[in-house]
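[Backbone geometry]
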Amino acid sequence: ENMMGIRVLILLCLMPAVFGESSGAVADDGEFVYYGRCNEPEQPCTILKSTAAPKNLPTLMATAEGDLAFVSIGDWGCGATNCILVEGTKRRFEEAGPTQARIAAAMDASALSVGSKLVLSMGDNFYFQGVQSADDPLWDSVWKSRFTGAGLQTPWYNVLGNHDHYGNAQAQIDFSLQGRDARWILPNYYWSTVQTFGQPGTETTLQLVMIDTVILDDAHTRGTLVEKIRRGLVPPSFLETFDSRKHIRAGLAEAQLEWFEDVLASSKADWLVVVGHYPILSGGEHGSTASLIQQVKPLLEKYRVDAYMAGHDHTAQHLHEKGVNYYVVGNGAFLGEVRPLPQTVFAAVEPGYGVHQVSARAMTTTWMDESGTPIYAHTIPRPPRRTAAA
């Protein structure tokens, strides 16, 4: 079933490169402007709130001295061969590996351009069944041999996605704890880090709170897996592997929520960003996550989190509600589909990644396509949360 519904695209015209292709169809329903083939899944599409439609292509600016820059990518776990054919099924994804390779090259160039200090990974690091151990050959074929550019030889801050949990999720943590590659940072299923930048005496801090949304909604994850098996997207053996590790995940959800609120409540950071795999709000193919709306969203609002970043839906999105920005960067290998929600500001079906530049007074996120061209940018143009609260 096409989640987009039927939209009549009534005007054909040449479109600027900001929309990902040189020409396409456009329609305006009064609230949103649609570019591309938005009524078809896995086809190029850009949706912009009418009041936010840019007149010019956003420009990726140089990072000011003392400011912090980093890049982000989600749902990127396709090497040269592991996504061509899903074992035990007839579903093929021939383009996912080449797409990931193009994105890796473009992301490297952007990272060098802005002086990126880290890579933020939103999960689904290894398709389609994660890794099985810290020695799994996928470490080389999907990650090490693919992200070789000088701009990406920085720490990779990771969370786990549902496909990571379909395999041995603990192995990705072990890989980090055992120091197999100093870049891979994943000390636990959920964790937090503070980045300090700026001039001595006037430093600014960004806290990244990394959560495991799969553990927070184990039932949803299992139901999604059962549906993927029913549709022939993954083999039935995935379910047995997933269920065999239920005892590891059991009990972690409640402990994680307690930890999460403690971290948010005690944070003294100027900027506070939460990162998870499942989106809270999304108009993508999987949609919003009801359990996270109930469990996590109120805490984001209560503690004035600046942004929640996620993947899972193979799209690029910016949504906003009650002071919190919701960013989706789940387009690191696959194409999904998207429809606007009332909270939508921007959405696109376009392979790519994110670039983030943070100063004492602003945080800008720029969504890039697979060629390294900016397609949309959003800036939080207010003082950091602690200053604003004073």
Observations:
- Residues 1-23 have pLDDT under 50 and may be disordered.
- The longest strand covers residues 191-197.
- The two ends are 50 Å apart (CA to CA).
- The chain has twelve helices and 18 strands.
